[in-house]
Design goal:
Blueprint: E1 4-6, E2 19-20, E3 25-32, E4 35-44, E5 58-61, E6 64-73, E7 80-87, H1 88-94, E8 97-101, H2 116-123, E9 130-131, H3 134-139, E10 157-161, H4 162-173, E11 177-181, E12 184-188, E13 194-200, E14 209-213, E15 220-224, E16 240-242, H5 244-250, E17 254-258, H6 265-277, E18 289-295, E19 316-321, E20 324-335, E21 344-348, H7 351-371, E22 395-396, E23 402-405, E24 408-412, E25 417-424, E26 427-433, E27 439-443, E28 449-451, E29 479-482, E30 493-500, E31 506-512, E32 515-517, E33 520-523, H8 525-548
Parallel strand pairs: 9-12, 13-19, 15-17
Antiparallel strand pairs: 1-2, 1-5, 3-4, 3-20, 4-7, 5-6, 6-7, 8-10, 11-12, 14-18, 15-16, 18-21, 19-20, 20-21, 22-23, 23-24, 24-25, 25-26, 26-27, 27-28, 29-30, 30-31, 32-33
Helix pairs in contact: 2-4
């Protein structure tokens, strides 16, 4: 098919176009499982069509569209234009901003157990993007993620784009690859097939390089979930799993992986077993990373072979290294649709692809931190899910007057601490300090309370048990009462004082302000004093009478 140029807003690439770029040369299409698909080419600036080639316009190669992202014009020497374009799905999805996703929708109101495609549908709503139906995928030998009922945990987020939402879904699902057909796409378990294609230096490869890398090889894997959860409870007390096959070949090589989203030890173990030694896992840790590169003779162009030897990204091929057969996938390829140059392929587990993925992941993490940073680049933790370790990461307010450090919360004024709540010097307490730093209110873990000021209540109080008032030291003051309803005075006052002799024996109760019994006024303070004198005189007469009768 011809190499075409389209306007920036074109959506149909099967018909007409702005121009046929028949003078383009060195047209190279790159495809990778974990990388952006691109096309690059050169074009002579002296050609009249060169002025039509502008940034943001679209070129199509064999019916697949790419948006121009880079145009370099060299005005010296040969006056050549160098152009690079990204697959249109990637570029347009990357530039479709979503202020928020999952915060106010029925689909993701519950973040646990969401169909991955339901999230993707939210991300492409009101766009040009269209999901390829399951029936069509089945005809191509592919299955979308989540078709088997497997759900994901998707946490609402904001300030994101459609492409990153899809990558987040893939990450949450644990696997997945994007199949592109212009604005139509699907996120599938895997792209490509195993057509039985054989490849060897003797048959259809002009170059062959085989690399084995054991840097990441692991035969014993420790797994940690949420809050450092281990699998010991479901794994016979052992926090790790072994690859018997790997240990026999390479000995014990230990490593660990964090699965911080999981709080179920069974699920944690299942994920670890898949990563370490899962059958069908092309990136299992108990085997060396195998990377095969080479240039391939496209035998499919020869009538004697036909489509049998046609290869595509994601296909499983059988590569023969002398007498060793490697059954691996094509993870990236570069081909030249308008020249006789042979395509080059990378098969297996390429370092480049992995590096790209990790670069994307780290870039996403950095962007997440940046967009969720508030004033002075302080992190807005409301956008993150999980547990913040307050011992490792103390929480402090902007004015530095509140501090949560470990299991102790402290609040201070401009000079000193005024409140402490939590574990203080090995005891769980609640303390309020006055302006001088003295304990105004102190409540310990045994329920004992100390108040250094006045206690006031505006409601009736019921006190159960024993009430002790003024029992500390020699400053005994007893109990004071205010607001007597039987008095016409604006403020009525009464005081009860314990009456103690020099030896410490309680003799009685002094009542200041008069005596009331059953709601009746009995005597005022002066009358009570007279009554005491009369009682004293009566006691004297009784004693005299006793003496006279002897």
């Amino acid at each position: 098919m011809a190499f075409k140029l389209h306007e920036w807003n074109e959506t149909d690439f099967t018909g007409g176009c702005l121009a046929y770029l028949n003078k383009a040369y060195e047209v190279a299409v790159f495809e990778g499982l974990q990388e952006t698909h691109t096309v690059s080419f050169k074009y002579p600036m002296k050609d009249e069509k060169a002025e039509l080639i502008k940034e943001n316009r679209i070129v199509s190669v064999e019916g697949q569209a790419y948006r121009i992202t880079l145009v370099k014009r060299d005005y010296s020497g040969s006056r050549i234009m160098t152009v690079k374009a990204n697959r249109i799905f990637y570029d347009d999805a990357l530039h479709h901003h979503l202020p928020t996703i999952g915060n106010d929708t029925d689909v993701t109101k519950s973040t646990i157990g969401v169909d991955p495609y339901d999230v993707i549908k939210l991300a492409i709503a009101d766009t040009k993007f269209e999901l390829i139906p399951d029936s069509e995928l089945k005809e191509m030998g592919m299955t979308r993620i989540g078709a088997d009922g497997v759900k994901i945990d998707f946490y609402p987020t904001d300030k994101i784009n459609t492409y990153d939402v899809i990558q987040n879904v893939i990450e949450a699902y644990g696997r997945g690859e994007i199949y592109y057909d212009n604005y139509r796409f699907a996120v599938v378990e895997r792209i490509g097939k195993d057509n039985g294609v054989r490849m060897s230096i003797k048959k259809n490869m002009t170059s062959l390089s085989v690399e084995r890398n054991t840097q990441e090889l692991t035969t014993r894997l420790y797994m940690y979930g949420k809050d450092d959860l281990t699998i010991s409870s479901v794994n016979g007390g052992k926090p790790y799993i072994d690859s018997k096959e790997g240990i026999e070949k390479y000995g014990i090589r230990e490593a660990y992986r964090d699965y911080s989203d999981y709080d179920d030890p069974e699920k944690l173990k299942a994920f670890g077993e898949w990563d370490l030694k899962g059958e069908g896992n092309e990136f299992r840790l108990d085997r060396p990373q195998l990377t095969i590169t080479g240039d391939v003779v496209d035998l499919s162009k020869l009538a004697e072979y036909g489509d049998f030897y046609k290869i595509s990204l994601g296909d499983t091929v059988h590569v023969f290294e002398d007498n060793i057969e490697h059954k691996q996938r094509i993870v990236s390829m570069t081909y030249y649709p308008y020249s006789a140059k042979q395509p080059s392929v990378t098969i297996g587990q390429p370092t480049l692809a992995n590096a790209y993925y990790h670069a994307w992941y780290m870039g996403k993490l950095i962007k997440t931190i940046q967009k969720n940073s508030g004033r002075a680049n302080k992190l807005k933790t409301s956008y993150f899910h999980g547990t913040v370790n307050s011992t490792q990461n103390p929480v402090r307010s902007d004015n530095k007057q509140l501090l949560l450090d470990g299991d102790l919360l402290s609040i201070k004024d401009s000079k000193r601490i005024r409140i402490r709540i939590g574990n203080y010097n090995g005891e769980f307490v609640f303390i309020i300090y006055d302006v001088k730093g003295n304990k105004a209110v102190y409540l310990n873990e045994d329920g004992e309370a100390v108040f250094s000021g006045t206690i006031e209540t505006m409601q009736d109080c019921i006190i159960q048990g024993m009430l002790r008032v003024g029992m500390a030291g020699n400053n005994t003051k007893g109990i004071e009462f205010y607001g007597d309803t039987y008095s016409s005075q604006s403020e009525c006052y009464a005081k009860m004082l314990p009456y103690v002799d020099v030896g410490g024996e309680l003799k009685g109760i002094n009542i200041e302000g008069g005596l009331w019994l059953n709601g009746y006024y009995v005597a005022n303070e002066n009358q009570i004093g007279d009554l005491r004198k009369r009682i004293a005189l009566l006691e004297e007469k009784i004693n005299e009478l006793k003496n006279s009768l002897k």
